[in-house]
User: Which sequence fits this backbone?
């Protein structure tokens, strides 16, 4: 390969500045690479859609995806909760099956995705001790989840530039394997980025206009505090009985998506699903399948669902520790669903009738 030609790996750099000497380069330390990626994640931005007419304050803050007061505080013990997001070290030490680890409530669930002013102003209606669930408040929960997902997707994309260096010191064959894998991975992340940008745009338009006619929600209130809080969004592929809702393929657009927020208010956990679009599409069908679950099983089904669908979830430490080893292993398996190592399957969504909570329902709101 000519030294001034574009490198074979697709980085866009000249061969001489990229892979020409890679075999002889010092191998990159995987923990250093992780630190570099974490540093990239700290670069934030404000998710507010119209900073021209409503200017940002200068400081981007660590915005909580789950309310710190109430939500995280209610499940924390000695200032800590457990996070399901593994570190590289744990991924390697556990051979890809990491357990939840402790994290302080100040850094749990945060992302630098809003300026101070917009974070405070936008979410004020859902920060109080009591929040009545209606289309306007449910919309704000969903908006926060979508802003978070967009941020997380961009961070994933940025992280690939660091991962491209992981083949330093490797044989040419291994370099090829790593770079080919990253290329496939990158095109998948880019598809995801386009999706999430489209969802965010739908939510932005409705945030600014106040239109809520095609926004729908289902909010379920439990009689106590569940040992879990979460915030995220996903494509519903199966309903909670394992029935297929939409088959996801690459590059095809316009899948239904749904947001989920689980937090607590006034000594009770609330779970809010929200989506833009039809009441009877895949997202609507997903929400109604959850509504149909017997009240006494809803908490367990919700827990299962959160482990399956988001890694932005946080647990009460003593609850996790109190579970039988086999239960913990089962939850850890669910967390790997839909990743490179484990494809989703319908039966993962089916209620296994195991009980890890005994909460029941005190109220359901929808609209
Ligand atoms: Zn290269
Ligand atoms: Zn702002």
Assistant:
């Amino acid at each position: 390969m000519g030294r001034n030609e574009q490198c074979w790996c697709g980085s866009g750099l000249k061969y001489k500045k990229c892979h020409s000497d890679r075999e002889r380069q010092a191998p990159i330390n995987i923990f250093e690479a992780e630190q570099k990626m974490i540093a990239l994640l700290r670069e934030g931005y404000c998710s507010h859609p119209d900073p021209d007419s409503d200017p940002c304050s200068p400081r981007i803050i660590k915005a909580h995806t789950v309310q710190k007061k109430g939500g995280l505080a209610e499940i924390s013990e000695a200032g800590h909760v457990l996070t399901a997001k593994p570190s590289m070290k744990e991924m390697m030490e556990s051979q890809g099956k990491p357990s939840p680890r402790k994290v302080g409530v100040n850094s749990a669930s945060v992302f630098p995705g809003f300026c101070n002013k917009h974070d405070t102003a936008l979410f004020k209606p859902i920060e109080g001790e009591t929040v009545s669930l209606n289309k306007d408040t449910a919309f704000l929960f969903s908006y926060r989840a979508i802003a978070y997902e967009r941020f997380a997707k961009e961070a994933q994309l940025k992280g690939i530039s660091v991962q491209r260096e992981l083949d330093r010191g490797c044989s040419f064959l291994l370099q090829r394997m790593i770079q080919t894998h990253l290329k496939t991975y990158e095109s998948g992340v880019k598809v995801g980025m386009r999706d999430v940008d489209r969802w965010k745009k739908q939510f932005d338009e409705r945030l600014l206009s106040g239109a809520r006619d095609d926004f729908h929600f289902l909010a379920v209130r439990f009689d106590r505090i569940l040992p879990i809080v979460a915030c995220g969004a996903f494509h519903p592929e199966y309903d909670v009985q394992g029935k297929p809702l939409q088959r996801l393929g690459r590059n095809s657009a316009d899948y239904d998506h749904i947001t989920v927020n689980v937090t607590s208010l006034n000594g009770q956990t609330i779970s809010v699903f929200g989506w833009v679009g039809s009441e009877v599409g895949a997202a609507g069908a997903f929400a109604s399948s959850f509504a149909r679950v017997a009240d006494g099983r809803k908490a367990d089904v919700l827990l299962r669902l959160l482990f399956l669908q988001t890694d932005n979830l946080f647990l009460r430490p003593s609850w996790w520790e109190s579970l039988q080893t086999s239960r913990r292993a089962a939850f850890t398996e669910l967390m790997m669903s839909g990743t490179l190592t484990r494809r989703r399957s319908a039966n993962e969504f089916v209620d296994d009738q195991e009980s890890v909570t005994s909460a029941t329902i005190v109220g359901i709101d929808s609209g």
